[in-house]
Design a protein that fits this description.
There is one protein chain. The protein has 259 residues and is an alpha/beta fold. It has a single domain, classed as NAD(P)-binding Rossmann-like Domain (Rossmann fold, 3-Layer(aba) Sandwich), CATH 3.40.50.720. A seven-stranded parallel β-sheet has the order 3-2-1-4-5-6-7, sandwiched between helices. It is globular and about 50 Å long. It starts with 12 loop residues before the first strand and ends in a 6-residue tail after the last strand.
Length: 259
Amino acid sequence: MTATNLKEFAEGVAIVAGGSGGLGAAIVHDLALSGSNVALTYRANQQAAERVTSEGLALGRAVEAAQLDLQDAAAVKLFVDDVVARHGTLHSVVYAAGPPIRMGFINQLDPASWAGAFRTDVEGCFNLIWACLPHLKRQKRGNIVALVTCAVDRSPAKDILSAAPKAAIQALIRGLAREEGRFGIRANCVGPGWIDAGLGGEIMGNLNESDYVQKFLAAIPMRSAGRGEDIAKAVTFLLSDHARYVTGATIPVAGGLQL
């Protein structure tokens, strides 16, 4: 498959935080396929990051990877400033990162795990936006998309460590859309459901009882798990001029699980 250059991606670069993960990798691939250069970050999995980079380069785009702790605000700013200095324009910012979480009822959680989920996810997302926003405002254009979860609409049992931080991120993105729209900046969310990639794929693979998986899939109106490319296509749409009048929205990509 050859790349198709979208005019809004023709110059500059997209930053994808968490681009080595299952969903992040699919987003990087689809952006490169759409003609975008990409600078992705990863936390620890260098091998996965190198694989994603190689696949993007094979599509004829400039794709690079950097190890980055999103909780280190100073390091995030240095990374973003360097990327923009080398590429000239920052057209898109995607937050596709997030900590591994354990499924559990609220009454089984402790303050440390609760605080850790918020610190890693919400603070990481804020630090990325804080570092990118001055560049977008100076350009008077740019797009931000954050991956949240369809659980911001309908939280299943044992999923609060995902749903609660992502709800905070959703509120942050909606606030950005309200405040920064006059500067030509759009901000939206994509809410994955049960996706057979990334964390969702790991959970499905680690479950010992296939009956549990089948019962969960039966609760999805479309009766199947989604794929990473389903999330990636929604993200690319929101970053493109096809969504030029869409901001402050959350698109669930969940086969109806949010209903």
